[in-house]
């Protein structure tokens, strides 16, 4: 052994003796606690669990099973109601979506109606305007022909009733006949 080992051994032996004293103190405390616990348990009869009868335990177990079954039935019933309501909610949402889409479409149609009516009116008026234009051309043509026929008829009736030139008949003024006759003779 070297001289460095001797102080280590002394330190270790002191530490071991200290640990033994701690251990003895703990052993005493554990023994005191167990005696106190024994005294408390021995003096308290309520601390010990009561022995029960197997028939009573079975009836309680049966009652608990029945309660559990009733609760399971209620849960199943509520789950069915929830599923039914979920289906109704889904259908209502679908209906709302369809009605919203339809409402938007109708709003758009209502906004476009004046334009549609104008366009349809123009489409219907186009053939009418064309027909009116054709009738007006025919009317002008017929009026021109009527004037031509009237003119020819007037010429024909004049030539047939008068053999000579058809001169206009002017009314003769009552006063100043001499001046007018002189102008006519010249």
Can you characterise this structure?
By secondary structure, the chain is an all-alpha fold. It has 3 helices and no strands. It is rod-shaped, with a radius of gyration of 67 Å.
What is the gist of this entry?
With 186 residues, the protein is mostly helical. 84% of the residues lie in helices and 0% in strands.
Q: Kindly report how far apart the N and C termini lie.
A: 190 Å
Query: Which structural class do you get from the secondary structure elements?
Result: mainly alpha
In total, the number of strands is 0
Helix content: over 70%
Mean pLDDT: 83
Give me the strand/helix succession. Answer: HHH
**Beta-strand proportion:** under 5%
Q: Uncertain runs with pLDDT below 50, 5 residues or more?
A: 179-186
Oligomer: single chain
Major beta sheet summary: none
Work out the helix count.
3
**How much is the radius of gyration in Å?**
67 Å
Shape, please?
A: rod-shaped
Task: Chart the SSEs and their pairings.
Elements: H1 5-43, H2 54-161, H3 177-185
Record keyword descriptors for this entry.
mainly alpha; rod-shaped; 186 residues
